[in-house]
Amino acid sequence: QVQLVESGGGLVQAGGSLRLSCVASGRTFSIYDMAWFRQPPGKEREFVARIIWSGGGIYGADSVKGRFTISADSAKNTVYLQMNNLKPEDTAVYYCAKRAGGTWAAADMDLWGKGTLVTVSS
Asked: What is the pLDDT of residue 28?
């Protein structure tokens, strides 16, 4: 069946970088249906970034704009999240997800990966 699998998380010091990957298996998804979310310890899952529908750029949460970039490789059915200048506040389990419809809130996603943990130390 269709699955999303994240990878690339790990331990990194503040100011460092990580690149997360999400591979879709079983079916090819449009990059415009994909987004990254994260869930910090003790907090609710929150939107991080998505490729905008027009394909002309990306949209990211205010907390990550200028630091995180989302991209995709359609041939590999993979979406990426390049995270630069990481802060301790970025510590979270990061998830990729596919939107079912409606808004880009977590509740409107119909397919989730199992997540990859990013821990930023300082």
From this structure: 67
pLDDT digits (tens, 9 = 90+) for 55-89: 556 778 899 989 999 888 878 888 999 999 999 99
Is-contact 17 90, C-beta < 8 A?
no
What amino acid occupies position 72? A
Closest CA to 61 of 112, 106, 115, 114: 106
Q: Which of 48, 51, 3, 49 is nearest to 25 (CA)?
A: 3
For tokens 């699998």, the residue is 5
pLDDT recorded at residue 58? 73
Contact in structure between 73 and 23 (CB atoms under 8 Å): no
Of 78, 62, 86, 90, which is closest to residue 70 (Cα–Cα)? Answer: 78
- Reduce the DSSP state of residue 38 to 3 states and report it: strand
Angle at Cα 20 formed by Cα 16 and Cα 25, nearest 5°?
A: 170
